[in-house]
Amino acid sequence: MTATIDAGTRRVTTAKAISEGIAQEMRANPDVFVMGEDVGPYGGIFGSTGGLFEEFGSTRIIDTPISETGFIGAGIGAAVEGMRPVVELMFVDFFGVCFDQIYNHMAKIHYESGGNVKVPMVLMTAVGGGYSDAAQHSQCLWATFAHMPGMKVVAPSNPYDAKGLMISAIRDDNPVVFMFHKGVMGLPWMAKNPRSIGPVPEEEYTVPIGKAAIAHEGSDVTVVSLSISVQHCLDVAEELEGTTSVEVIDLRSVVPLDRETILASVAKTGKLVIVDEDYKSFGLSGEIVATIADKDPSLLKAPVERVCYPDVPVPYARVLEYEALPTRDKIKAAIAKVTA
Amino acid sequence: MVDNDTRVDFYRQMVRIRAYEAALQANYHADKTPQWDIGAGLIPGEMHLAAGQEPVAVGLCANLVKDDAITGPHRPHHLALAKGVDINKMTAEIYGRDTGLCHGKGGHMHLFDPEQHFSCSGIIAEGMPVAVGQALAFSRKGTDNVAVAVAGEGAANQGAFHEALNLAAMWKLPVVFIIEDNDWAISVARDTATPIKDGSLRGTAYGMPSQRVEGNDVEMIYEACKTAVERARAGGGPTLLEIHTVRMWGHFEGDAQAYRGDELNEANERDPIPAYEKRLLSAGLLTEDQAAQIKAEAEAEVQAAIDFATSSPEPKPSDAYLHVFA
Ligand SMILES: Cc1ncc(C[n+]2csc(CCOP(=O)(O)OP(=O)(O)O)c2C)c(N)n1
Ligand SMILES: [Mg+2]
Hints:
Chain A is built from twelve helices and 14 strands. In chain A, 60% of the residues are buried. In chain A, the strands form three sheets. In chain A, strands 3-2-4-5-7-6-12 form a seven-stranded mixed β-sheet, with helices on both faces. Chain B is globular, with a radius of gyration of 19 Å. The longest helix of chain B has 27 residues. Chain B has a single domain, classed as Thiamin diphosphate (ThDP)-binding fold, Pyr/PP domains (Rossmann fold, 3-Layer(aba) Sandwich), CATH 3.40.50. Chains A and B meet through helix 3 and helix 11 of A and loops of B. The complex binds thiamine diphosphate and magnesium ion (MG).
């Protein structure tokens, strides 16, 4: 962990950690404001803006119509003029109706302008499945955003990182896509891993964007993951303690990708499992393998195992969805295979 | 004017839809105890029910035939039932069963019934251009079928709505656009999302006949839809109808609706079914006994559909890999 300050003993949900980070930045900087659907009195469908409306009111916590191209574009415009908007896209799956603003504008303006125009905005969005929300409300899609140059992409796995990454994202002069998995938010109405509630300092702190964390140290196998899958990987690593020494790397950021941390760990273990709830092909897991192949394929002492979302849309029925999702059992089987 | 048998049939259909939504509501919550968990139980996931909006579905669909198309929104059950989608297969889909319309792949927001040309989407307004394309196919094939795009008033602030209207008007396609204005888009009140009080102005702006229908009255809705559907069938091009209705329940099940305040009580007083029942009773078209019998029959039909669903097999896990490509 890169924690530079004591996390203390106060335990909060990831949702609370995110809204607290936003609130502290809003108090410190009048240019920070929030826009999105149901971010006001409702507090965000997944709680990411809980309590903000009560403190900051409707001029800084703005409920929008269902006009994503309009309000994400408006966020860009405000950022270009020096504000620091946090704009929520309710589910990442809805990027389909507004991606032009995101990838042709938010992500490219700085480059196109030869570095003369900055877009310091946060695009915050909910990702992930596991609760039968089916094909249009369950995807992760971080690799889709990461594939397009010009946006930083972060995906925390726990409350501490969520707050620190949100504060870093707001302060960053670049557009940052902040992707929170619904399952890590600690929502009272969704099954959750206890890791979704954890120690979070009351004061402001940052978690650096682009720096992975060694979430569990080990020497037999490297398991690279991010977001909710880290929680499953940690469960497995703890369960295997005494049998297999599992090193779990929590990427925390997809862009920039902390390739050094991955390479150093694989150099140590020689074995690699990648656990990713995003689609398998043409994505993050392939990028990680390429990172090793580019640098030194001989680091690997066994073929890589990828526990990723298969290349199918997310099905509705629970039996179908859990067939496709990365689960602890699949992670365990992959570890067993690469360490056999 | 609507004849007397039709009026009783309207009542019967609205009661049937309400019985369906009420049963799903009860069953949805029944096994999410003790800790309410959206992903748990026989019906997992999001659940958007349409209590209060029955008059729209019934008044609209009374003008449609099997080969007319509907694209519906995330809140689709009332439309599907009124259109004639098989209640057993639809229920089995909502229960994630292999006998469901989509073999458990789609779920409640993604019901596809090609026989009834019915589909719906969970992405706001994105079914509307699809209806335009179905209308394009109907006109190319020389049929007199009509495509209907149904979406909420919140969806009318989405780009796809505007693009679909313009295309349909320009190409004079047989489309009927229906906006179900239930005053809310989740927690965002209609009046805080657009300064336009009468959404039919938007249809006028795109050059099509348009009308706002107040009252949530199945007969008035039927008449307005009749004019629109007949115009489309006769080659007269698209129409926009904004129908003021009511969302009696939460946006989705589990929505505490704190944002509604007193308006929620009012909304429940605007329940269209008891009001219509009273009208038919006092017109002598219905007796209390008949009304009770209609309700009992509806409840029995719904229970049979649920029994069909719950006794149906689940899909095989490996079926997850089927159907990505044709
Ligand atoms: C493009 C897109 N944006 C946001 C959502 C999230 N969402 C689902 S339903 C809804 C409100 C829809 O309101 P309305 O169109 O009025 O339909 P109603 O729910 O009232 O029937 C929202 C914002 C979505 N599904 N798709
Ligand atoms: Mg609405």
